[in-house]
Amino acid sequence: MEYNVLWIDDEHETLTGTKGRAKRNGINLVPFKSLDGIDELERNYTFYDGVLLDAKFLESDSDIAGSEDTDNVHRAKERILQLPKKFEIFVLTGQAEAYDDRQFTKAFLKVYKKADDNDIEQLFVDIKAAADKQEDTQLRFKHKRAFDVCTERYIGESAGQDLLSLLKIEDSGNTNDHFNTIRKLIEDLFVAFNKYKLLPAEFIQSGIALNESSKFLAGKDRDGNYFEEKGFKHLDETHLPAEVSNLIRGLLIYTQAGSHRSAIDQHIRIVQNSYLVTSLVYQLMDVLTWFKIYVDGNPKQENWESTTEIQITDSNLVLGVVFNFNYQKGFAFFRPNNGADSCIIPANIVSQYSLNENDRIEAELEDYFDHRRNQTMTRVKSAQKI
């Protein structure tokens, strides 16, 4: 795991050597040209382990070269000091008037010279030493394998900030927020299953179907019967291990909104501690760690079959209107202008063609056999707004 350091230097694009040396020292420099970089730090300060500034840089990315000013580094410091997370500020500069100026080095205690190789090496050592004192950094390194999953390759970098917030729970207050955050991370996990083609798109379009996704991935119930969810059956080879599917199911039981939550809330009010939420966080990290091992092993993709037998009609394009839009589940209905019976527009079709209530469309219809109803039905296969 690398140290993430926000870096402001208007010439950072030319300093590829500095970026490379930082990488070799285990430091990921996230570069910005101007004071605008502090906006990013204020939004996502939990993500960063340190701050590195030039002595002179632009006020805004849109400013012209030559308008750099030392006033901006002082303004940056003032804003950094207001953050809930406290950073030691490091300055790397080629401005002799900065590192030789007594007032400047009084305001910034950690100043290093760009042209001095020994200074730069010492800078990296000092940045890591300061970062190691940060609670966030300590947690990220302590639970490295769980945070390794919180990247764009797996479930997304924003998931890392959510996980950090959960690991810092100290009391039983704001339990709804904690449960919601855990549920969001499970949603991120299901999106990643789809990204790796281990979960059909129908499970995450127009809202993530948590219960259905959990069952589909498990594959079978306790009696060995296949789950059939959203028109799909998950074939044997890629069913989740029972330990993992049970953990996911348990996480959903505790974190989903519903009548059962009142009993959980009552329990927390009685015991007055955060042990339940903390235990769920550790179970979640166990699932995340397993997920990385699983997808890194290149499991078989799209290992499912449709539980509906589709028979496409002749390519008849029918004019009509979208109505009865279900905003919660994402599907809608199609009313043909020719007086024929209305039919469903599946959620994936609504999303694919960006359909809305009262849209006039030209629709291609298809017949399919619904095994659950044991009858042939009609639905919209494709659509064109008119």
Question: From the structure provided, what is the oligomeric state, counting identical versus distinct chains?
Answer: single chain
Tally of structural domains: 3
Q: Strand fraction band?
A: 15-25%
User: Taking Cα atoms only, what radius of gyration do you get, to the nearest Å?
Assistant: 27 Å
The poorly predicted ranges are 310-315
Q: Choose one word for the global shape.
A: elongated
Helix content: 40-55%
SS field, number of helical segments: 15
**Would you tell me the structural class of the helices and strands?**
alpha/beta
Major sheet attributes: 6 strands, antiparallel
Give the mean pLDDT.
88
**Order of helix and strand elements from N to C terminus:** EHEHEHEHHEHHHHHHEEHHHEEEEEHEE
Tally of strands = 14
N/C terminus separation: 52 Å
Condensed summary:
This protein is α/β, with parallel strands linked by helices and 386 residues long.
Draw up the topology in text.
Elements lengths: L2 E6 L7 H9 L2 E6 L3 H8 L6 E4 L17 H10 L8 E5 L2 H4 L2 H6 L2 E4 L3 H15 L3 H8 L1 H4 L10 H10 L7 H21 L14 H9 L9 E2 L2 E3 L7 H14 L4 H12 L3 H22 L7 E3 L1 E4 L5 E7 L8 E5 L6 E3 L1 H6 L7 E11 L4 E11 L1
Parallel strand pairs: 1-2, 1-3, 3-4, 4-5
Antiparallel strand pairs: 6-7, 7-8, 9-13, 10-11, 10-13, 11-12, 13-14
Helix pairs in contact: 9-10, 10-12, 10-14, 11-12, 12-14
